[in-house]
Amino acid sequence: MSSFKRSGNPSYYEPSEAMEEVRGFIEKWQNILGLSEWEISAEIVHSSKIHGGMGHSSWNTMSEKAIIEISFDCVDEHHGCELEETVVHELLHVFFNRSYDLLVSRILAKNPEESIFEDLCAQFVEKAYENDIERLAKTFVTLQRVIELMAERSV
Question: Domain range for residue 13?
């Protein structure tokens, strides 16, 4: 968990330290996930900007650019958010964006005249996709930490 607290005020963190850590996680996981060619930037934002979530990503496949937004709440350790997992989660959205966009467009193309069917399919696919991304992010971070720990012990 991140700790960006100043002793005088327990709910205050230093944003520059948080951004430094976020950028470090992006660089690390961008390489691990094979997204080195992407230009990925980050912002720390109020949770209302990302609908109460801990993170959000947007991307442009053609230009290979992405923006990851991390909630102020996520860098505040009192909210229980795991900052590295949130960064990995958002990078996985970028990683899988082509496949997901294609899958949704194919499902919705099957029955375009039935809007209820479209809505249900989109909701189901979105929920399943989000759950899969979350599981993958937790698994990848855990495995990477085990690898790093084993490497430290072998030195």
Answer: 5-154
